[in-house]
Amino acid sequence: MKDQKIALITGANRGIGYETAKQLGEQGVTVILTARSLDVANESAGKLKQLGIDAHGAKLEVTSADDRKALAKYIDDKFGRLDILVNNAGVAPKRSLFEKITAETDEEEFEYIFQTNFFSVVYVTNALLPLLKKSGAGRIVNLSSILGSLTLHAQADSPIKDIKVLSYNASKAALNMFTNHLAIELEGTGIKVNSAHPGWVKTELGGTEVAPMEIVDGAKTSVELSLIGEDGPNGRFIHLGEELPW
């Protein structure tokens, strides 16, 4: 266990989160899969155990301070440290992601999106940071989106020019800012922090009918950033090895 890396993936009971846990587990990493329900988390971990992966389920409603505190204690008691944190859990707008919604965005929509996609990522990371500092080379991967790129949104010929849902896009832009600032703050600790754009993937959020990428490919960026060495990127926005503009 001492030499085996320990990874926590939030929202790992399905989709990209589950596939990320699977791919990390296949590379010998002990994976902790979280879900809002412990039964669901354990069921997902059980599927990976059947594949020979050292997998564990844990309850985490990312918006719950009590859950975050309990999770940190569980990891500390069972493993004593954390090597990899993949902040995968996120929510989509209650309406379509593929339209233009700015001025009419209401308070409920902003709070719903930002609580999970931004505030909770900061709070989960803060709760687990002491455990990551016990690792020789901690890695934090924040699941962002190309839709959080201010540079691309400002370009007239941008591939995302027609996708302007303020609540979701702004939450990912804020998440990118967190990545940038935390990476700078943790310089010299051995911890690397990066944002990952998984791509347009066939998930409930991305749409199973029109999205061009399969889930197995959508997890690759998170896995690569979880396992980077000392010479790997830090404080960057990455998709399949290529850097994206903030």
Q: What does the model show?
A:
The protein is an alpha/beta fold and 246 residues long. The protein has a single domain, classed as Rossmann fold. The protein has helices spanning 15-26, 38-49, 65-78, 107-132, 150-153, 166-185, 215-218, 220-226; strands at 6-9, 30-35, 55-59, 84-87, 100-101, 139-143, 164-165, 192-196, 237-239, 242-243. An 8-stranded mixed β-sheet has the order 3-2-1-4-6-8-9-10, with helices on both faces. A two-stranded parallel ribbon has the order 5-7. Strand 2, helix 2 (38-49) and strand 3 (55-59) form a beta-alpha-beta unit. Helix 1 crosses helix 8 (220-226), helix 3 (65-78) runs parallel beside helix 4 (107-132) and helix 4 runs parallel beside helix 6. It is globular. The model has no long low-confidence stretch (mean pLDDT 93).
Task: Give the secondary structure arrangement, pairings included.
Layout: E1 6-9, H1 15-26, E2 30-35, H2 38-49, E3 55-59, H3 65-78, E4 84-87, E5 100-101, H4 107-132, E6 139-143, H5 150-153, E7 164-165, H6 166-185, E8 192-196, H7 215-218, H8 220-226, E9 237-239, E10 242-243
Parallel strand pairs: 1-2, 1-4, 2-3, 4-6, 5-7, 6-8, 8-9
Antiparallel strand pairs: 9-10
